[in-house]
Design a protein that fits this description.
Helices cover 27% and strands 24% of the residues. By secondary structure, it is α+β, with helices and mostly antiparallel strands. Among the domains are: 5-37, no CATH class; 76-137, no CATH class. The strands form four sheets. Strands 3-4-5 form a three-stranded antiparallel β-sheet.
Length: 150
């Protein structure tokens, strides 16, 4: 059985029965460990003197965005082997074909890379194919075998 002592609270001074604790309640404990207004001011002033790495480099809170950032890679990224344009959130090969045609591509139109290299988006390498025929089977008239067209 634990030994219970008569103690005096270190925050409010009330006497209480407890076993090795210094405060009569959680409320007194939390109040005792709070910073005083003077301490809070000192901490705030110390934080102002510390230079954040971003602040040192850029002179403001955030680094420059977009083309002004030295890490800018032209707004392009590669996902699933295809080049995506971050500025338009669209595939580069579709963007190039739309610019060439002067119109938006229809939902059933797909762009096929003739040489099979997904990142080679030269206009000579791109053709428009109808959605259902982009990856379909075709029969050879000579050997009667079916082949998958990509």
């Amino acid at each position: 059985m634990p030994v219970i002592y008569q103690k005096k609270c270190k925050y409010c001074g009330k006497s209480y029965k407890g076993q090795g604790k210094n405060f009569c309640s959680w409320s007194c404990r939390s109040k005792a460990y709070r910073h005083s207004e003077k301490t809070k001011r000192k901490i705030s002033e110390a934080h102002k003197k510390i230079k954040h790495p971003k602040l040192l480099k850029w002179g403001k809170e955030h680094p420059p965005k977009g083309k002004n950032n030295p890490m800018w890679k032209g707004g392009k990224s590669i996902r699933n082997g295809y080049i995506w344009l971050n500025m338009n959130k669209m595939l580069e090969h579709r963007f190039i074909m739309e610019k060439y045609l002067g119109r938006k591509l229809k939902s059933y139109e797909e762009i096929h890379h003739l040489n099979g290299i997904k990142t080679d988006n030269h206009l000579e390498n791109l053709i428009i194919v109808i959605n259902g025929f982009h990856k379909s089977k075709v029969g050879c008239p000579f050997c009667n075998k079916e082949f998958l067209i990509k």
